[in-house]
Amino acid sequence: xxxxxFWCSPPAQWVFPMKKAFNKIRTTLTIVLAIMAFVVAxxxxxxxxxxxxxxxxxxxxxxxxxxxxPVGSLIISRKAASYQVGxxxxxxxxxxxxxxxxxxxxxxxxxxQGDANNEPDDNPVAPSSIIGKLWISLPFVGRFIAxxxxxxxxxxxxxxxSLLIVINEILAIGKELSKAELKKQAxxxxxxxxxxxxxxxxxxxxPLRKRTTKTSGVVAHRRKRxxxxxxxxxxxxxxxxxxxxxxxxLLITIVSLIxxxxxxxxxxxxxxxxxxGVREKxxxxxxxxxxxxxxxxCSDGQIIELWNGSSxxxxxxxxxxxxxxxxxxxxxxxxxxxAAGQFAxxxxxxxxxxxxCxxxxxxxxLTVNMGGNPPINTSSGSLSLVDKNNVVIDTVSYGSxxxxxxxxxxxxxxxxxxxxxxxGNFNASDFMSQFPATLGFALPVPQPxxxxxxxxxxxxxxxxxxxxxxxxxxxxxxxxxxxVFSGDGTTLEATVPASTTLSSGQRYxxxxxxxxxxxxxxxxxxxxxxxxxxxxxxxxYHKFAPASGTSWSRIPEGTNTWVLDSSETPGTxxxx
Amino acid sequence: xxxxxxxxxxxxVAVVAGVSAVTFAFFSDSGTSTDNVFESGTIILxxxxxxxxxxxxxxxxxxxxxxxxxxxxxxxxxxxxxxxHVANHAEVAVVDTDTTTPALDKELELTTxxxxxVDILSQVTDLNSNTWKDLDDLEAGSGLDNLALTDxxxxxxxxxxxxxRSDAGNDYQGGSVTSLWTITLNQVASQ
Lengths: 576, 191
Description:
Chain A is an alpha+beta fold. Chain A has helices at about 10-50, 140-150, 150-190, 215-255, 355-360; strands at about 55-60, 75-80, 90-95, 95-105, 110-115, 130-140, 200, 205, 260, 265-280, 285-295, 305-310, 315, 320-325, 330, 335-340, 345, 365-370, 380-385, 390-400, 410-415, 430-435, 450-455, 465-470, 475-480, 485, 490-495, 500, 505-510, 525-530, 535-540, 550-555, 560-565. Among the domains of chain A are: about 285-435, Immunoglobulin-like (Sandwich), CATH 2.60.40.1260; about 450-565, Immunoglobulin-like (Sandwich). Chain A is about 25% helix and about 30% strand. In chain A, strands 5-4-3-6-2-1-9 form a seven-stranded mixed beta sheet, with helices on one face. In chain A, strands 18-17-12-11-21-22 form a six-stranded mixed beta sheet, with no helix packed on it. In chain A, α1 (about 10-50) crosses α4 and α3 runs antiparallel to α4 (about 215-255). The longest helix of chain A has about 40 residues, at about 150-190. The relative contact order of chain A is 0.08. The model of chain A is unreliable at about 1-10, about 50 and about 205-215 (pLDDT under 50). The longest helix of chain B is centred in the N-terminal third of the chain and has 25 residues, at about 5-25. Chain B has a five-stranded antiparallel beta sheet with strand order 1-4-9-6-7, with no helix packed on it. Chain B has a three-stranded antiparallel beta sheet with strand order 8-5-10. In chain B, about 15% of the residues lie in helices and about 35% in strands. Chain B has two helices and ten strands, in the order αβββββββαβββ. At the A-B interface, α2, α3, α4 and β10 of A face α1, β1, β2, β3 and β4 of B. β10 (about 265-280) of chain A pairs antiparallel with β10 of chain B.
């Protein structure tokens, strides 16, 4: 004979109070869960009805749509055929959903903005990114869902009720098992002592007789039906309650998976009118002293280079030079015209321009023999160009602390005619030291292709005379038919073949095959001209002749620093 | 089996399975549930430069006049969140209006660019392939991003030095470029 499990049979004195308390808890829980289940069921049904597209339920987690949509609201967005300015829409952004208002349309996309934000969102929203238009907004409901999603809320709202349901069901199972056991015992006793009174489910019944009268049998059956009917109703109600609890529990559990929509905050600021303006004229539109050799190793070697930056020819008859002590030397008392854009080299000479020091003036350059020593100090000073009306046209200060140059080198404007302080004013930053001097011409700024290395006096080794060009620019340069001249710029030394293009950093090497004196070892000048005969680079070595077996090299490459290199590197990178 | 017992077993299985599944979905990604934070408040970006303070819009923060090749111009733009909610970062978009042909902004090289004292020039890419980083590159790229601004009421200095390239040609004489900077202060990193 079996017995009921111990956990189904608490002590008699506990049964009534425990059962009462448990029933109260169960009833309260049932009501709460039923309400929740109803709300959730309504929302769930609404969110899944396939009417006009899909729905999206989201919890509003940020306040950029306040006051229209408070933080903590549960919103439902419904897909629409089209969206208009003013609509509040939910759209996907990266891994989140954003709910903002459409404030404009632009190129087929939507410009959105949070009501609480000052400015529209950064990025336009493509129509395909829009999930739907705000349909329902339920304040505070989202907070409940969010609370459910916290560890505490999850424990209180999901885990604990679920646990109670499970315990309740376990108790129910125990009760059923107990009842089954009692029934089994009753049946066994009936078979032995049919007149014994049985207690079945707490209802006292008369002993069943094996045989009975018709009348008494009807009464017994009626009573039994009555008992059975009442018990069945109670059990059916309890079963419904249990099923409702379980379903509600599952629905709440599923609702806790509703995601959030983050209508993020942002704010914009502007910094406007950031103007970068370039001086109207930083290239002089008049005559300027463009280059100056003030310290020369040659007799009468001081040279002043003028450049006519104006658009007119200028006659410098009766113009003069004046130093910092107002010592003046007239340049010339005869008509001497410098054409627009022309260079003029002023030097002391009793007859012709002295070419023995720095070589002949390039062709087309005006040379002016002043006949007297210019008022130029060999270390530092100031020199002004004064016209016939004693108007100062230009002024240059030289030597420390102003721009300086070593002997036989020059100071030169950073670019042809670069003059930010006109007339009698001077700006030291307009000038730079120049080696070698570029008397009678100026180099372009920037220089895309340069003479990178050259050797004019090879020793007995295998290396011949060579001229190496290099593309210093970032882009490719077509150097077809570029030429290298010597002397005054008219003696051709080398021509680059047609269809020759140098990529950035690439070199072109012109190497003489026969060993011989192809280019003068001393007192000469190399001038690189492009296909349009514009000077691109030059090097005068009248005062800087390389020793035998050495080359002049730009080191490091890409700079204007020239170095005498005894380990020449024709066609390869210049290194010391 | 007794139908009542069977019903109880089914309810237990359903509830345990449902809760277990959701619990797994909740905590399997990060170990904790973090997607449940409500945020309200304000994010307010205020800008300052050398002569304007805590403004929505400032003017002439950067720039230079009468520039000649080799000149430099330095400006400082301070970013501050005066709202009640902390932000995450700021981003900058630049639009240039250039009146010069060829374009002057390509000759305005960004020689220094720092935010909070940290070099951020690496955020600019030489998109025009002229071998230096310039105002044109800043405009053409995605601007500046992830400028951390996670505190309240504290200035964060964005400092830029621009050099008018010394090898810029004569064509730029009298030219100008005007630059509009739009700074967006964002709440979260994903913005």
